[in-house]
Design brief:
Largest sheet: none
CATH topology of the largest domain: Rna Polymerase Sigma Factor, Chain: A
Distance between the termini: 33 Å
CATH architecture of the largest domain: Orthogonal Bundle
Helix content: 55-70%
Radius of gyration: 20 Å
Low-confidence stretches: 1-7
Number of strands: 0
């Protein structure tokens, strides 16, 4: 993807210092993701909030010069790199403080890179989906949304959902397809992402 002067994507818009709406949307989507990531690495709420603020300041400074080059990686990879770097800085500061973290705590907090990548990918997909779903749910009738949610997100069998919601089986599949297509289009238009609804256990 190459940005153009008419691009409406969030990553293009957020580089404009005067586009407050774009930055608010950016914060809405990515701060829950980052906060959950830091909490998942063992930080308490106060420390997670502190590192989150550091990351958002770093992003605000860097985003205006960010050039999206797919051959060099995705935006979520770049965001992960920034988040991990600032988190490592935090751990390093803690390690220099006497008795800040014992060996057991440090081992728990330092997962392998591959494991963290998997966690980050899953959390990223969920955060984007959750944000988009909150904005689009009102476009659909309740039974349409329920059929989609139960089959696509919760992983329930379509025939069981049809019985529960008193719908024809074909209508359940149609509902899932309609909502999925709308979500993918909305996410694609806003973030240049092509994401299927993630399963949530």
């Amino acid at each position: 993807m190459e940005f153009s002067p008419t691009s409406k994507t969030l990553l293009f818009r957020v580089r404009d210092a005067e586009d407050d709406a774009a930055w608010r949307t950016f914060v809405e989507i990515y701060t829950p993701l980052l906060f959950r990531y830091f909490r998942g690495r063992g930080l308490n709420e106060t420390d997670a909030s502190e590192v989150l603020q550091i990351v958002m300041i770093a992003i605000a400074r860097a985003i205006r010069g960010f050039e999206y080059e797919p051959e060099r990686g995705t935006f979520r990879s770049w965001l992960y790199t920034v988040a991990r770097s600032k988190l490592n800085d935090f751990f390093n500061r803690q390690a220099r403080q006497p008795m800040a973290l014992d060996d057991e705590e440090m081992a728990r907090l330092t997962d392998s890179a591959d494991e963290i990548d998997d966690k980050w990918e899953a959390e990223y997909r969920w955060s984007v989906f959750e944000w988009a779903a909150a904005r689009l749910r009102s476009e659909f009738q309740a039974h349409t949304w329920d059929a989609f949610w139960r089959t696509a997100v919760e992983g329930q069998a379509a025939d069981a959902v049809a019985k529960t919601l008193d719908m024809k089986l074909g209508s359940v599949y149609t509902a899932r397809s309609r909502v999925t297509a709308r979500l993918r289009a909305f996410i694609g238009e806003t973030l240049d992402e092509d994401l299927e609804p993630p399963r949530r256990s």
